[in-house]
């Protein structure tokens, strides 16, 4: 006797969901903006002020997306937001103070999708999908060209332990409030081997050719050829590639 159609369809849907769950993991997350002691509040994004949250993966991942809660200082204007996934200054030879380096692995720009005191979680999906290496420091940096009073606000989390920083009027980064900017980073567990630039699972002459083509490049052209993520393609990356040959 043939099986009824409905149970077979349900089984297929469950299998698809299971596959989706298995391929994604939370690399880092804070709580959302609701329920905190001060209620809804956050850091203004305008030409004089950027805001950033730092995260440190505990295991290697491949970046999937970043999600932040944003609201709006205006009741009628949708401000523009730019988010960037940046390397840490201490990893790219910019001194010993942890802060955003200005070197981006990914970048997104979109209009904020909310008006007034109405936070919405905005998702920035990965395109280059860089490796997030265990123990390294990364930043999600937000900025906006919108003028103060009609600009996006990056909400503080009700609780959480992200390290945050604010770009001051004089152009220097300073430690943010003790409260965290909201941030969730998702990724697929595991990352390509260092030197597997075309991501086919092997490190071979094709990857070597790609690395040499990008020799001395900086981001974004450097891409995965910058295997040690120090901002430039050079002999250190070549050594990484040769060490994982095969
Ligand atoms: Ca390869
Ligand atoms: Ca490098």
**Which structural class best describes the helix and strand composition?**
alpha+beta
In terms of DSSP E residues, the strand content is 25-35%
Average predicted local confidence, pLDDT? 89
| Uncertain segments | 1-22
- CATH topological fold name of the largest domain: Jelly Rolls
Rg estimate, integer Å: 21 Å
**Strand elements, count:** 13
Protein described:
- The protein is an alpha+beta fold and 246 residues long.
- The chain has helices at residues 5-22, 205-213, 235-243; strands at residues 25-29, 42-44, 51-55, 61-72, 80-88, 100-111, 120-125, 131-132, 138-143, 152-155, 163-167, 173-175, 184-189.
- The strands form two sheets. Strands 1, 2, 4, 7, 8, 10 and 13 form a seven-stranded antiparallel sheet that branches. A six-stranded antiparallel sheet has the order 6-5-9-3-11-12, with no helix packed on it.
- The protein is 15% helix and 32% strand.
- It has two domains: 25-189, Jelly Rolls (Sandwich), CATH 2.60.120; 205-243, no CATH class.
- A hairpin with a 5-residue loop joins strand 11 and strand 12 (173-175).
- Bound molecules: calcium ion (CA) (2 copies).
- Residues 226, 228, 230, 232-234, 236-237 line the site of one calcium ion (CA).
Overview in brief:
The chain contains three helices and 13 strands, in the order H-E-E-E-E-E-E-E-E-E-E-E-E-E-H-H. It is of the alpha+beta class. The protein folds into two domains: 25-189, Jelly Rolls (Sandwich); 205-243, no CATH class.
Question: Helices and strands in order, then pairings?
Answer:
Layout: H1 5-22, E1 25-29, E2 42-44, E3 51-55, E4 61-72, E5 80-88, E6 100-111, E7 120-125, E8 131-132, E9 138-143, E10 152-155, E11 163-167, E12 173-175, E13 184-189, H2 205-213, H3 235-243
Antiparallel strand pairs: 1-13, 2-10, 3-9, 3-11, 4-7, 4-8, 4-10, 4-13, 5-6, 5-9, 11-12
The structure holds calcium ion (2 copies).
């Amino acid at each position: 006797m043939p099986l009824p159609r409905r149970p077979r369809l349900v089984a297929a849907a469950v299998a698809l969901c299971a596959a989706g769950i298995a391929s994604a993991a939370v690399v880092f997350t804070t709580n959302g903006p609701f329920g905190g002691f001060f209620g809804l509040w956050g850091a203004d994004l305008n030409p004089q002020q950027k805001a950033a949250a730092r995260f440190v993966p505990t295991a290697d991942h491949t970046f999937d997306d970043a999600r932040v809660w944003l609201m709006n200082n205006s009741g009628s204007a949708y401000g523009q937001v730019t988010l960037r996934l940046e390397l840490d200054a201490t990893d790219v030879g910019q001194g010993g103070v942890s802060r955003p380096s200005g070197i981006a692995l990914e970048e997104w720009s979109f209009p904020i999708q909310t008006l007034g005191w109405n936070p919405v979680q905005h998702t920035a999906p990965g395109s280059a999908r860089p490796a997030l290496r265990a123990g390294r420091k990364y930043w999600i940096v937000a900025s906006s060209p919108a003028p103060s009073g009609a600009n996006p606000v990056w909400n503080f989390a009700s609780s959480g332990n992200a390290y945050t920083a604010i770009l001051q009027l004089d152009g220097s980064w300073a430690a943010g409030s003790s409260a965290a900017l909201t941030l969730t980073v998702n990724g697929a567990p595991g990352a390509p081997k260092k030197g597997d630039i075309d991501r086919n699972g092997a490190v071979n002459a094709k990857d070597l050719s790609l690395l040499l083509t990008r020799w001395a490049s900086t981001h974004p052209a450097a891409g995965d050829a910058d295997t040690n993520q120090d901002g430039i393609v050079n002999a250190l990356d070549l050594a990484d590639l040769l060490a994982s040959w095969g």
